[in-house]
Design goal:
Two copies of one chain form a homodimer. Chain A is mostly helical. Helix content of chain A is 62%, strand content 0%. The structure holds a DNA duplex (30 and 30 nucleotides).
DNA sequence: CAAAACATACATCCATGCATGTATAATGCG
DNA sequence: CGCATTATACATGCATGGATGTATGTTTTG
């Protein structure tokens, strides 16, 4: 029964995008047929060609849906409720990003981007990943520069180096996770790893009278494995 | 004119693998047709189906060709001409690996693995990457454990953490490079990054009378590397 | 009544798999 | 050692299916 109301039309569009995520993730972008996606959404190929020009357009729309909220997160990076140290801000923001990546939608779409689509002409995931990497890197670089000025950084490394090291570590962590997402929890492993990482680059000569004493921050540094609930502890001081 | 000699047959097989690398890298694995690969190798599809069962088999054979020499490298990791410190050994071996990755063949095949093929049933790049990651990690973990026993590691981090950090950093670097291989040199950027990284984790309390003084190492790059013999460059075939 | 929001039908293309052809190198045999 | 045979190393042709793009039909809503 064609000619639904406008809200229904938007609903089928979203259903198509949801179905695209699932089918792309299951079969890969190239082997996924529009027929399958349409069927998974409960419609026919006609609906697909009405809402999208072709498969590449559908793919781009699927990416757009996660690009915006994710960039919001990246740009919300400097915003911190408390005037903590700059390094602390970066650390918490990255942890937030890692937790987001474990949400089903981001996990699926990133899984598609990383292991289930091929770069070619119209479909080009790399350009988007590169773009996101550049903006994110520019943002954190500003933060690391500030940290350097504040004397939070160990003197032997500059802000640029710290920034590069940081993004390599994070990217490597995410890619390692996507090699087998069931092997470990990205958020909790990332938290532990980042604790160690920031412990390595932060200045230990605490002449920092600017910031509050901050009693030990890596309290359980020798005690790695946090007490066992382990289940993506998101409710901890993280505003939604 | 069929029925070539055995060496010629092996030559066309190699030519097919070379062509597969090129075409896979150009169009992606899914969109590359066996027709195209055969033409690029100067033969017809008949030759492809003679040497390989199907596209997945060809893909696997292409991977096999780089898997073996690369694992040789990984396993040659502990072998060091000079009794340097353990951390130094890891650093130099990783640098060697990074230099290898800039060689055309490894660059192409890794580029295919990372951005130009989709995981699915028969074609599964992830399992190979995971396998290589595990063996490499097991090897370096042994090294880091030895470094820990020798007191080369900063006391606040253990061998397991150092190993995880190390592989995340390396993986992140390689993936960043593959986002745009023309943006920077993997070897030289990697050398700089690794210098800083090992500077961060190594123990500064130099009670190490075991190793030679080794003046400042940071930012310092002395001789490039052994002008190696390039190893097994036999695959030069491509008739016509 | 016109356009939106699809469903249906149709034509086209092309990659795959296999079957068959074929000429030559390798091999066994007398 | 010559020769027939056979397996080899492909080339060619055919059949198939499945995906794509588009054209057209069908309601219903605004």
């Amino acid at each position: 029964m064609p000619r639904r109301t406008r809200e229904e039309a938007e609903a089928t569009r979203e259903a198509l995008l949801d179905a695209a995520e699932l089918v792309f993730h299951e079969k890969g972008v190239a082997r996924a047929s529009l027929q399958e996606i349409a069927r998974a959404a409960g419609v026919t190929r006609g609906a697909v060609y009405w809402h999208f020009r072709d498969k590449a357009d559908l793919f781009r729309a699927m990416l757009e849906r996660i690009r915006m909220p994710f960039e919001e997160l990246v740009e919300a990076l400097p915003a911190s409720d408390r005037p903590r140290s700059v390094l602390e801000t970066i650390r918490l923001a990255s942890l937030l990003a890692l937790e987001r990546m474990e949400e089903p939608r981001f996990k699926r779409v990133h899984g598609i981007l990383i292991h289930r689509c091929e770069i070619f002409d119209d479909i080009d995931p790399v350009s988007m990943m590169r773009e996101m990497a550049l903006t994110a890197s520019a943002n954190t670089l500003e933060q690391f520069r500030q940290a350097e000025r504040d004397g939070e950084l160990r003197p032997e490394i500059d802000a640029e180096t710290a920034n590069r090291l940081f993004h390599c570590t994070l990217r490597g962590l995410v890619h390692s996770w996507h090699l087998d997402t069931d092997a470990f929890s990205l958020a909790s492993s990332g938290r532990e790893l980042l604790n160690h990482w920031f412990g390595l680059i932060e200045n230990t000569d605490s002449q920092q009278s600017l910031t509050q004493p901050e009693p030990q921050r890596h309290g359980q540094r020798r005690e790695h494995h946090a007490p066992g609930h382990q289940g993506r502890g998101q409710g901890r001081s993280q505003p939604r």
